[in-house]
Amino acid sequence: MPVLKRLVLAAAVLSIIAAVGLYFFNQYWIHRFDALIARQASVYRLDPDLVWSIIYEETYFSPWKIGEDAEIGLMQVTPTVGREWAAETGMREFAQQMSRDPRSVLADPERNIQVGCWYLEKISKAYRDLPDAEARMVAAYNAGPSRAAEWNRVASNQTPLTSAQFVERIDIPSTRAYVSSILARYRELKEAGGGGRPQKK
User: Fold this and answer.
1) In the chain, domain spans
2) Distance from chain centroid for Cα 160
3) More exposed terminus of the chain, fewer Cβ within 10 Å: N or C?
4) What does the H/E/C string look like for 99-167?
5) What angle do CA 130, 133, 139 make, to 5 degrees?
6) Taking the CB of residue 170, how many other CB atoms lie within 10 A of it?
7) CATH number 2.40.30.10 is the correct assignment for the domain at 32-191
8) What are the residues facing 77 on neighbouring strands?
């Protein structure tokens, strides 16, 4: 076999090996917190697929990420939310840690998912009786509960907004894109039966 053909064949084999390796690394990367997500979602009566979709969008499973407004960790929890959570637990140690150094507490993946799920469950209470509650929850998680409540407002004699109608009302482009992206990924998960997590595109 000519040298050039051998080199081309070797390059093709190496490309296949690299692609397979990248695929399996990516699978590991996006699934390594699944058990933590399932555990905390169960505690706070949330769908783990929704929590997973939020983490995918927020940080692509990178626990060290710090946001532009000092959001911390996997679910980009703010120190303010962390302090609210610590106060509600009634555990002085958590409250002291959150006051001193919220970053060290919220950088821990399990604690971050716990606090993020606590906040998401708190948000969800306003929308439990509505269809397509996920759109409202995700919008509130990103832009704040008061903005989500405003976008969701209808007259007392009107039927609740559909998910699409609600998303159309979001007047912050970045939040609309955020909600749309998470809902698309969440629906993809549901169509795959919840276990076949979609790949990063």
Assistant:
1) 32-191
2) 25
3) C
4) HHCHHHHHCCHHHHHHHHHHHHHHHHCCCCCCCCHHHHHHHHHHHCHHHHHHHHCCCCCCCCCCHHHHH
5) 130
6) 21
7) no
8) 72
Tokens of residue 63, six digits:
């626990």
Rounded CA-CA distance 117/123 in Å is 10
Copy the structure tokens of residue 154: 């209808």
Q: Enter the tokens of residue 20.
A: 């397979």
pTM of the model: 0.86
Crossing angle for the helix pair 48-59 and 173-191, nearest 10 degrees?
130
pLDDT tens for 123-170 read 999 998 888 899 999 999 999 999 999 999 999 899 999 999 999 999
The single-letter code of the amino acid at 108 is D
Helices and strands (DSSP H and E) totals, the chain: 11, 0
Question: What is the number of alpha carbons within 13 Å of residue 99 lying toward its C-beta?
Answer: 7
Tell me which DSSP letter residue 71 carries.
Answer: -
CA pair distance 136, 149, nearest whole angstrom: 8
Rounded CA separation 61/199 (Å): 13
Contact 113, 40 (CB under 8 A): yes
Q: Which residue has the tokens 């610590």?
A: 86
